[in-house]
Amino acid sequence: MKSRKTLADVAAAAGVSKMTASRALRGDKDVSQANIERVKQAAREIGYYGNQFASSLSSKHTDLIGVVVPSLSNIVFPQVMSGVTNALKGTLLQPVFGVTDYDPETEYETLRNMLSWRPAGLIVTGIDQPPETRQLLKDAGVPIVQIMDIDGHPVDACVGFSHSEAGHDIAVALFETGLRRFGYVGRNLDKDLRAAKRKQGFQSALREHGLAFAGIIDGSDLPVDVTALSAVDCGRRLTADLLKRQPDLDCIYFSNDDLAFGGLCHCIAEGIDVPGDVALAGFNGLGLIEGFPGKIATSRTARKQIGEQAARTILETLEHSAAEMEKLHIMKPEISLGELAVTNDKPD
Amino acid sequence: MKSRKTLADVAAAAGVSKMTASRALRGDKDVSQANIERVKQAAREIGYYGNQFASSLSSKHTDLIGVVVPSLSNIVFPQVMSGVTNALKGTLLQPVFGVTDYDPETEYETLRNMLSWRPAGLIVTGIDQPPETRQLLKDAGVPIVQIMDIDGHPVDACVGFSHSEAGHDIAVALFETGLRRFGYVGRNLDKDLRAAKRKQGFQSALREHGLAFAGIIDGSDLPVDVTALSAVDCGRRLTADLLKRQPDLDCIYFSNDDLAFGGLCHCIAEGIDVPGDVALAGFNGLGLIEGFPGKIATSRTARKQIGEQAARTILETLEHSAAEMEKLHIMKPEISLGELAVTNDKPD
DNA sequence: ACCGGTACCGATACCGGTATTGATACCAGT
DNA sequence: ACTGGTATCAATACCGGTATCGGTACCGGT
Prior knowledge:
The structure is a homodimer. Chain A is of the alpha/beta class. In chain A, 44% of the residues lie in helices and 14% in strands. Chains A and B meet through helix 4, helix 5, strand 2, helix 6 and helix 10 of A and helix 4, helix 5, strand 2, helix 6 and helix 10 of B.
């Protein structure tokens, strides 16, 4: 393979200096129209495309925005990534994604790696990074935006909402429709801190009314390895299990919509009326629950918008460079009770 | 914020030369144990993390594998990305993702951009790139793996399966269970070439039996803007529409599982027996159809494995550097007929 | 004819690492 | 004592761009 074309090749082909070629290609000023054409033509002819390493090394500047998410399996995060991509479209900036698998160690390594790329900004999922990771972010010297959670102390900017509040709020809303015997279904709560916060928020709301979960399943107490199942399938099984143990529940709160949807599948298969016999509540407002409109109560989170806002926050911080920006963007989820809302006279 | 730490700082702190520091940090040989410790210690103390630009520029070598997918909204592609990430874990290589939104122009730009990063390899979704893009890939001088489709001429290596064959095969399988009046529901076929290939494969199988689709809906003939809907919701509406126009269908083929699941939701809501009154067939074998086991026939594609195999192919090509590698990996989807299989083999 | 201003261009010095080469010290073998 | 080999380190020359700054040419004004 012949060696790659460099700027010097372009310059030679165009009969100008490297510097002029560089300026012409970047649309910098101080180049005559004639030379611009000549250089661009030459570049096209020899099939030249720049070398970001050399460019970024020399200019001490990149167009990269690092985006760190915990998972790709949960559709929520690709949607956030979509939002970021969206908001960055048309700007000079470009997202680079990293996945942590909900593992703090991997997260730390991923961030270190990203920083070695000297990104212009960083978007990180979650707010509860371990101290060492926080320090890394603090010292990074670039705009940092933490997303999806605001229950805690952000390193810098923050876009998201309170999960404990979200859990609390939907518990209250459900309670007000007259429901009293609540069950809970979740999994991976040890890893998914935000799901755990929702559960805890839900519980605290129950406590305020002198209630508690009448039944809890989080997957750890089951013989099957629920982590191997798809989320929907897992929800189906855990719901079956919970209802067998506690047939008198009138509402089940799931750690997310996928599980809740699995629960709905179980109920439909078993002829259990939803929400008549038992109400189901999930979290996120995913597209899949629209298959059975109104059956599942949920908190609709604005994933895409959070991604977009995070990206916009970075952009603004970069432009105004000032520290005087809006540091906190709360994008509170909207509660949707579905059929529960109409079965009760209560105003929403 | 003081200027970033460089290798020179580390070297100074450790009392050695830049070169020794470099070798020590990279685990290169020719460094005494004492100095290795000293340098690593110094690096940790002053919070040093390398500069990939300088490193890659100097060594003419990167650890990047570019991965280009058309979309993040379709869970299938994040799963492929997961597979790639997985297979690369433990190696020195690292994936970088790009999204094209099914737009050839964006794809070309994304690839150009990736190439300016001199990646060690490239994984590209699809096989039908326009000539200019193909040329770009050919001249890239790095291992290229095209994935998800083998109906065409790969630039180099290829991991996936034939979509037209997949459509053909499931049509045959459905036909053999006795189904005769087929309908089709899809959307975005102009963009999603692979879905179009499946439809065409399905049609050709029907033709072989003297049949044709008795009804086709692809969303373009509907008043509502189906692109704005979630896939499941869209499937629900299009199915409703199709069945209103053609109530006598005994099977509907959907362009994917999301739409098919929407169809199932419609049927359940309307009390239509599946697969008794009408059978439904989708594509992919997504987790969500496990919510109603056996209700939807599908072709289970090995997304994650395709991602893994693609990554492995790159790794091997890089190692053996030889051109004599297995260039084609066919990962044929497995047909799952669900309840249809039972009603055919042994009637209850 | 002289001067200041503007448009354009190129030589030079890096950016922060790594490959390469050469130097030094020390040791075993003869 | 001398030679060759090994282990360890440092100096130097880049990698392929870009920032900087100092020219040159040409213009209008006086």
